[in-house]
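Appendix B, example 12.
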Amino acid sequence: MAPRRVAVTGLGVICALGHDVPSFWNALCAGRPGIARIESVDMSALRFQNGAEVRNYDPAQHFERAQADLLDRFAQFALIAARQAVRDSGIVFTPELRPRTAIITGSSVGGQSTQDTQFWAVYRNHSPRVHPLTIPRIMPNAGASHISMEFGISGPAYTVSTACASSNHAIGQAFWMVRSGAAELAVAGGSETPFSFGFLKAWEAMRVVAPDTCRPFSRDRRGLILGEGGAMLVLEPLERAQARGAPVYAEVIGFGMSSDAGHITTPSTDGPARAMTAALEDAQISAEAVGYISAHGTGTPSNDPTETRAIRQVFGAHAGKLAVSSTKSMHGHALGAASALEAVATVLALRHAILPPTANFTTPDPECDLDVVPNQSRPAEVEYALSNAFAFGGLNAVLAFRRA
């Protein structure tokens, strides 16, 4: 079978910027961050206070009590985003389509809130037992499994866990499966909820979390801001989408991966550069064709100049003509879900011809000498875009998109 063109026909999002795609996109266009004081955890014993939480969230609006009891918050977000994406796509899961549909999700840590609560009960309160559903709530594949059960999808379903690159790895593999014909349709993305006391203490110990806000590429950046949420995309062959009159947001045209084979937390230049180059080669486009990059852009002192050098290594003189922004400045660093949120943002940027900004930007950094679309969104007709994800462990995953 000849490789098929792959369309994005459905989108779903829940994060600090809103509980649906329109709210998410409106906040991005307005350059309005969802970063504020963390409310779900007692922060009095922590050195940082801010995060990008999903505010005003009530599980009862989405789930019956019995189902909610089965789902950690991260899996709830996965299922909510999948419901939105499937509804948006207009797909009908027939008996023929269900076994030909893949579900691939990304999550770095799975059910952190459940784990924290139950382990606290054991170690702090000396409880002789934990909740009997602790394991199925914690497991990182819970989101994929519950999406499968919700829609009766009986094709391949699994979860990728590669730290901050998890969702890009998931979407990229889903893209390859649909392109090759291994799957007729895919639901792909990721979810994460890192706001539990023990996990936040672990991040505090790394000394990479900003005390105020996330300022990617700014000279006075002080670190990342943790976020939470879920995002899903429906992928299907372009011909199929056109035949059924489905909305086509964009095409996925390439996917590239690499590993640094270097330091476990310090990023390299060559690894990300290889992943971007691999995505361009897979897409069969030149570096000069790309007009926008959704950057990994964590706002840490080491990531942003390293990513800048990697972009310049791949794009050469064309790097000066690229728009490069980091939406983590608004929705925070949602770890395994981050690149799913950013993939949706990139798709919407292509569809609406508006580039989301790098918010909270103050002072240019000579080491980050790119056009980072500071503070205000920008109208721009872009044909091709990349979305970068570079994870702890030196694991890199890059998606390439084409405007529909």
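The radius of gyration is 20 Å. The chain has a mean pLDDT of 97.
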